[in-house]
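_Backbone structure tokens_
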Amino acid sequence: MKKIILIEDRKERQKEFLSESTLMELKNIEELFLPEEADCTRILSSINAKEMESLESYSLIIVHASRLDTNGFKALEEYCGKGKKYLILFSGGFSQTIYQEANFKLLRANSKDFYSDKLLQFLRKFIEQETVHLTELVYGDSWKLSFLLHYRHNKGILKNSPNGRRELELEEFGHSFNFDQINDIDKDINERILGL
């Protein structure tokens, strides 16, 4: 089983988005560590000081990103890359969901998308090693549809105007999704949409 830490320095935000029963269920997940606000502040200060010892025993690190400075972001990303840890950053300041996969798997999401009705299921599946992709947190079972639409969009841009960055993005997609098994992307997308 995998262990998770959720570093949320404003517990009131959880109450804004989650019901009381969901909060109780979160607190009862044994493999999920929810530090108190003061401890979160201390951990975030440590991350900003490039000290990562408090994160060593966790496979998935979830952080409220607004409290990280530039050094903290960089240090946390380097740490996750070296340790092959999963990282989810959330903030009310993020306007879109961004998934990256290079040295490690990273998801950036808006707080509203993070604290959704999919959170509990995602955490449980991750702990039991049943999660296929970090974007399941935001898109649930429709994550593959989102992935395919993004892939098709980038492939179309690459076809019309070659760009090294887009090639890298397409390569990153291949790590998570076996596109060789899909003969007709448009057909696959249409079938998934009809299945909703």
Observations:
- The chain has two domains: 4-131, 143-194.
- The domain at 4-131 is CATH 3.40.50 (Rossmann fold).
- The CA atoms of residues 41 and 88 lie 17 Å apart.
- The mean pLDDT is 84.
